[in-house]
Design goal:
The structure is a single chain. By secondary structure, this protein is mainly alpha-helical. The chain has a domain at 1-43. It is built from two helices and no strands. It has helices spanning 2-41, 66-82. It is flat, with a radius of gyration of 31 Å.
């Protein structure tokens, strides 16, 4: 009786693993098919111009006032002192 139960459980396990394997294979092919379908019917991506060398970078925003800079420095120091390894 115990041997019969063991063989049934092994058969069920193999059947379950087989169904999952077949499902995943079908899923891979369906995903590839949908990808090809979308690339065929989707409009082409808009062309974006690259950065031109003639364009200069925009100047940085106005500098931070001294009080704010000091507060940032203190916050960084406090954070580093609390999180030392």
């Amino acid at each position: 009786m115990n041997n019969d139960l063991m063989s049934q459980s092994i058969e069920l396990m193999i059947a379950g693993m087989g169904f999952v394997f077949v499902f995943l294979i079908i899923l891979v092919f369906a995903t590839q098919f949908m990808s090809k379908l979308i690339t065929q019917f989707a409009p082409p991506a808009p062309v974006t111009p690259g950065k031109s060398a003639s364009r200069a970078k925009k100047p940085a925003a106005a500098s931070v006032d001294p009080d704010t800079a000091e507060a940032i420095k203190k916050a960084i120091t406090q954070h580093r002192s609390r999180h030392k390894k």
